[in-house]
Structure formats: C-alpha cells, structure tokens
Design goal:
The chain is α/β, with parallel strands linked by helices and about 270 residues long. The protein has two domains: about 60 residues, Vcp-like ATPase, Chain A, domain 2 (Roll); about 190 residues, Vaccinia Virus protein VP39 (Rossmann fold). About 20% of the residues lie in helices and about 30% in strands. The protein has six helices and 15 strands. Strands 9-8-7-10-11-15-12 form a seven-stranded mixed sheet, with helices on both faces. A four-stranded antiparallel sheet has the order 2-1-6-5, with no helix packed on it. Strand 13 and strand 14 form a beta hairpin. The radius of gyration is 22 Å and the shape is globular.
Length: about 270
C-alpha cells in the first residue's frame, strides 16, 4: 500500500527531475536537476538545487539577473534536444505521422529505420503504458545514440531496438501500424501487408517524389486502400504589434508522407449486397 506521503507530485520539481529553462523562444536549456550542480549560460548561472520543491512554471533569476522560466519538458522538447547521428524528422512531420498511424495507448507499432530515435520517442510516448514500438535499424552504430535519446525522454522501456534489415523480414504480426523512414520503402510493402492487422495503417516518409511513386505503386498492388500523399510545409509568424509578418527564414520541403490502410484481398465468392 502506497502511503500518502510517498506519492510524488509530478508538478513539483524534485532532485532528478528534468527541467526546461526557457530564456526566450530561441534559447532553452534542458537539464536534469542535481544538488550541487549549476546551469551555466551566457546570461549567468542558475543553482539547480534552488528549484527543488518548487512548482514547474516558476520564474528564476540567473546570477546576472536575467529571468528564466523552469518548465516541465514536453515530448517536443525531448525531440528538439535529441542528439543526432542522422537527420531527424521534423516535429511538423512527426505530428502528422502519429495522427495518420492512429496509434494510442496499447498500440503495437513497427518502425524502420531508427536513426537517432526522434520519431521513435514520439511513437513510444503515444503507445505507453502498455503498447510497444519495435524499431528496426540496419546500421548498428546508430543504436547507442538512439538508446540514449529514448532513455532521456523516459520512453526506452516501451521500445525494442532491433539491429535488423526490415527488408529481410518483419518478425511481428497483428500490428496496428507500420511506419517507414528508409530509402526503399516500396521493398517493405508486401511484408508490411502480412504483418498488419485488418484495417491497420502504414505511413511512409520519403524526401523525393520518385520514392513516393514506387511506394504508391506497391501499395496499390498489395490491396492497400485510402492511399494519400501529402507534403507538410510549416511557416512561423513573427508576431509584433504593428509589424506582424512571416519569419524571414523557414524550413521548406522536408519530405512527403504517404498513408494507406490494409484491406483484405478479394475472395472468389464475394457477391454484391443487393
């Protein structure tokens, strides 16, 4: 039985808590709170232990008098701060991939490839606490960094990292979703069809239209339905009274997202309903 005094308030900063210190929208610092340590910035330092016992959202002053806000990190913050060994998928694309894949608590998902684990972090965040992400990565050297990023985002326990080539086979079955971020997704379509449950979702992210065309052709051959390809372009707006306008710089094309769902193959005895 858990004593009332043993219940940890997740809105209170503890030793070992992650904190995102925000100076402004362009300068943030994600750290783990430990006694005796300081956050050193170009605007002065902050004594970590001064935050212990305080609520998230508290404003603190650095040694030079600059105001920081101590925020509770979101999955977006963990993805943004992920250490990279490969180019990660942008959050704008990750959001659409999560929605199109229809995953949620308890979902079983296969992903390929893992890369630095940014997309994996988001998938694991949404399938927890009783779901599972099976992440395939053919390059073994990428896995240690992905594992560190997943651990830092507190989702490693919901992921099984696999140093395997998904083109050679998918070892899971009755999956809710298959998500592909690799150079030749069309080579995986037939195996994905077999591994998915009926009505399950497949989502493929590709940087070039040639990849998309080959993937869509294979999806059509393998009885996938509702096939849609989109490009997500996001533009930030600089909001200032009397001078609101789009930001000068923006992330343009990052990739195309192709989505489809598994339908069972036609049987010979299929008859019209009327």
């Amino acid at each position: 039985m858990i004593e009332h005094s043993d219940i940890i308030d997740e809105n209170i900063i503890q030793e070992g808590s992650d904190v995102l210190f925000l100076l402004d929208t362009k300068r943030t610092f994600l750290i783990n709170i430990k006694k005796g340590e300081k956050l050193h910035t170009h605007k002065g330092f902050i004594q970590n232990e001064d935050l212990i016992g305080k609520k998230y959202g508290k404003k603190v002053l650095s040694s030079l008098g600059y105001e920081f806000v101590a925020l509770k990190p979101t999955i977006y913050d963990y993805i943004k701060k992920a250490r990279r060994s490969t180019q990660i998928i942008y959050p704008k694309d990750i959001a659409l991939i999560v929605v199109y894949s229809n995953i949620g608590p308890g979902s079983r998902v296969v992903e390929a490839g893992t890369g630095s684990g940014a997309l994996t972090c988001a998938l694991a965040h949404y399938v927890k606490p009783n779901g599972r992400v099976y992440s395939y990565e053919v390059r073994e050297e990428f896995l240690p960094k992905a594992r560190k990023n997943l651990k830092k985002a507190h989702v490693l326990e919901y992921v099984e990292l696999k140093n395997k080539d998904i083109i050679s086979g998918i070892f899971e079955s009755n999956l809710d979703a298959v998500i592909l971020d690799l150079a030749t997704p069309w080579l995986v379509i037939q195996r994905a069809y077999t591994a998915l449950r009926g009505s399950g979702c497949i989502v493929s992210f590709s940087p070039t239209i040639e990849q998309v065309v080959k993937t869509v052709i294979e999806l059509e051959k393998n009885e996938f339905v509702g096939i849609v390809t989109i490009e997500c372009i996001m533009r930030k707006i600089r909001v200032k009274e009397g001078a609101t306008r789009p930001e000068t710089l923006m992330h343009g094309h990052s990739g195309y997202i192709t989505y489809a769902r598994k339908a069972f193959k036609k049987s010979n005895d299929l008859k019209p309903l009327f």
